[in-house]
Amino acid sequence: xxxxxxxxxxxxxxxxxxxxxxxxxxxxxxxxxxxxxxxxxxxxxxxxxxxxxxxxxxxxxxxxxxxxxxxxxxxxxxxxxxxxxxxxxxxxxxxxxxxxxxxxxxxxxxxxxxxxxxxxxxxxxxxxxxxxxxxxxxxxxxxxxxxxxxxxxxxxxxxxxxxxxxxxxxxxxxxxxxxxxxxxxxxxxxxxxxxxxxxxxxxxxxxxxxxxxxxxxxxxxxxxxxxxxxxxxxxxxxxxxxxxxxxxxxxxxxxxxxxxxxxxxxxx
Length: 268
Prior knowledge:
Elements: H1 5-26, H2 31-41, E1 48-52, H3 58-67, E2 72-77, H4 80-83, E3 90-93, E4 106-112, H5 121-131, E5 132-143, H6 150-162, H7 179-188, E6 191-205, H8 208-216, H9 221-226, H10 231-240, H11 242-245, E7 249-250, E8 253-267
Parallel strand pairs: 1-2, 1-4, 2-3, 4-5
Antiparallel strand pairs: 5-8, 6-8, 7-8
Helix pairs in contact: 8-10
């Protein structure tokens, strides 16, 4: 299956526009990840911060509180619908592979669970490096290996089991789950002082239907594709995903512990 970058971006943008405020509500379950990423970014008052692939601006909002009135946190995303959820922040709708900012505009760039969604991840990393000051810092997070991310892999495995292969090829969201591969990618984009550490977090769901809805509320392009699936098949997925969730069953529902990698680096 050939890969069409432009078509993939259109699907992602449409999907994230579709889920809008639902994403904002569901993303609260990942609050500890946002806190870990901002801690890694080492923000101080007065800095200029770019939150890339910002979604509804959770990281940007937290960053703005740290940098204060003399600093600036900018939320940037390809989805205008997501950015509409953070009207109190500076917002720029943009393609992360071609940012509309001058060289050296920011002391910090943060990107929470976003790098995996850039078709040309090298271009995105080079843009992050370009807009950073020479003494700046990049802090980003990515999903770990599929086997270590049941929060997402359970849904994807159910889709692979019950649905035909997708018509639009998608880059694997786990493709940077190996720390060595992520390190190589950062090095190839001229980042030094690279540090990559695992961060684990746990989310609980009352039942399979709650898990499935949580997945849809955060899935972007996948949610857009699933919206085109016949309603009866959508209902089947919400029920059948219990098979993939079975290893994580606990009294009162399901408990899923997943891993992300948090990386920091500086421009060469």
